Amino acid sequence: MNKIVSKENFSENVVKLEVEAPLIAKSRKAGHFVIVRVGEKGERIPLTIAASDTQKGTITLVVQKIGVSSTKLCNLNVGDEITDVVGPLGKATHIENFGTVVCAGGGVGVAPMLPIVEALKKAGNRVITVLAARNKSLVILEDQMRKFSDEVIIMTDDGSSGKKGLVTNGIEEVINREKVDLCVTIGPAIMMKFVALLTKKYEIPTVASLNTIMVDGTGMCGACRVTVGGKTKFVCVDGPEFDAHQVDFDQMLMRLGAYKQEEQADMYKVSKQ
Amino acid sequence: MAEDRNVAWREDLRKGLSNKERTAIQRVKMNELEPAYRARVREEVNQGLTKEQALVEAKRCLDCPNPTCMTGCPVSINIPGFIKNIERGEILEAAKVLKETSALPAVCGRVCPQEKQCESQCFYKLKLKKDAVGIGYLERFAADYERESGMISVPEIKEKNGKKIAVVGSGPAGLSFAGDMAKMGYSVTVFEALHEIGGVLKYGIPEFRLPNKVVDVEIENLRKMGVTFIKDCIVGKTISIKDLEEDGFKGVFVASGAGLPRFMNISGENLIGVMSSNEYLTRVNLMDAANPESDTPINKGHNVAVIGGGNTAMDSVRTALRLGADRAMIVYRRSEEEMPARLEEVKHAKEEGVEFMTLHNPIEYIGDEKGRVVKMRLQKMQLGEPDASGRRSPIEIPGAIEEIDVDEVIVSIGVSPNPLIPSSVEGLQVSPKGTIVVNEGMQSSIPMLFAGGDIVRGGATVILAMGDGRAAAAAMDKYLK
User: Fold this and answer.
1) What is the enclosing helix (H) or strand (E) of A201?
2) Closest partner residue to B272 among A84, A221, A258, by Cβ?
3) What is the pTM of this model?
4) pLDDT, tens only, B145-195
5) Is CATH 3.30.565.10 the right assignment for the domain spanning B164-259+417-480?
6) In this complex, is the C-beta atom of B115 within 8 Å of any C-beta atom belonging to chain A?
7) Same CATH fold, B261-415 and B2-149?
8) pLDDT single digits (tens) A5-33
9) What is the CATH number that goes with domain B261-415?
10) In CATH, which superfamily holds the domain spanning B2-149?
11) Hey, are the CB atoms on A255 and B269 less than 8 Å from each other?
12) b/e B114-129 (16+ beta carbons within 10 angstroms → b)
């Protein structure tokens, strides 16, 4: 059991949870994820680690209410226990001094991008961070990102914060003014697809961190499989990060919808919680 | 052993009934639920023997001076020893004999392929050309009787020797190893990656073949023997082998099991509705996804095809029936004779209405506009010459292709070893297939690290994994002395 030691509401649907998990806090690196389960009938869901504190023995997760399981997790409060937290899973982000790196995050994908931005900066990169959200209230972790970024560009759909436009507009602005050596993107699959299309046009190597459906998270079930460069890969053990230009995002988007109907039918369970 | 056989009560038993009378008794039939009923429920299919049936079946055993049956058992159970105890009505004593060498008798009595092991070496089978003694049935009977009696015996534990041992994985290999080491006085801690203890016994083998409560009792017994279980902890990720060493563990037994499920790499295999048997069974067994109370979703197929001919394929196809499938098919590229599944599983599947499409091989899956599988294309096969495995290899019949409507496909063609440990331990010798290389004492290239089960074999049975656990325990004990 893993106790929640702090909780912050980023917006109505997005919360930040700091969770006791001393062993994971110690062993995790940027890019790793955990599998979390809420309740004895709970589902196993993957969440990428946003931060950790080895002194306090905690990890930080940022969760968006989407389905039953994520909503149940978001509804937990300080002092509550998460039934299971296991990890760190997946391969850590490959960090080196690439030169100039654009980190493009959208939605809750911004959270797991934070440790990557930090690690890249510490490795000597010039880091330009592009944060995208629908509106001002949904922009998260802006201050923390500024700490480790040479520049932060905010993009909102309605222009209520930063510039009006999509994440791709922000990235293209950077590409047009300076040489970019690498792009890292984390966010909704559809966003990463368009980031990949854009950077492919400019032939900028791009890494995407994928968040697919998983069950065990240790390579056993294959629920998370994606096609990368024509080959089937398991996100949990081969990823979660892949060459974005090789990922079949259309297939990934399709597979993410595998249980959509069931999930909607199950939402009644949240009110019972 | 010989002494054991010469005890007075056993001599009396042998004198009490002639071999002619014994061999005249017909082999008992397992009590089973009716196929039409059981195919729609999760209740255990085999109901076990009654005490009366077991006492009669035990009489069939001739208490051979040279019990060949024992040579067929990977954990060398004292077979006549336990059966004769049943015959004289000392069932709890019989259970004790089983537990001398097997940490999980109630499990083995249910899932071992006895017809290929002990029963294949039974005197009845070898010399009399008759049906073997129902060794598996009797094993299950004794273990169930003990459990239901509420008088479960805890094996004798030697004085604690103060040495800490770690086990990676709580499946059959790990549990069997843990039991033996605890008996020898070691302090054993088992680390499990999942949120439940039991490995494949929990996530893989379905309730209708091996009820979870049976597994839980055996695990509880290990707890009583002093074994500690830690779940949600992945050795190689959460903690390293080095951490364990620094923490004072003197030996590590890696029994992390089978990992990556294999796929065929054919077109349409990533469509929605196509999944591995590991995923399907894990959702249903471990996550209880078919229960409306469970948060884990599952798509219940109407026309379900299971690709493969092993026990896992049989478990999957019979699970599909229980989840309400109208049509449940086994698609296998060889003929029924080459099927690796236990005879009993094939028989049960057929009785329950599973269709067997042998000599068929999928070549493509076709999806609808939403990416859901709706059809599979099958290549018809014929048998050619025997291949490296000794089985006749399937050859395509040119142009013989069939299309069948399906809305769920379970791929059950085997697994590759779990890569987590091999990839996280420096200097560990691993085969090209990804299995850990060990010597005859199950010791790896790193002396304090032993391994067994599917991480060494690539994919085998519960009992072979348990045999590895026993062999590793004996060898590690020697190494640590």
Assistant:
1) helix A189-201
2) A258
3) 0.92
4) 999 998 888 888 899 999 999 999 999 999 999 999 999 999 999 999 999
5) no
6) no
7) no
8) 999 998 888 999 999 999 999 999 999 99
9) 3.50.50.60
10) Alpha-helical ferredoxin (1.10.1060.10)
11) no
12) beebbbebbbbbeeee
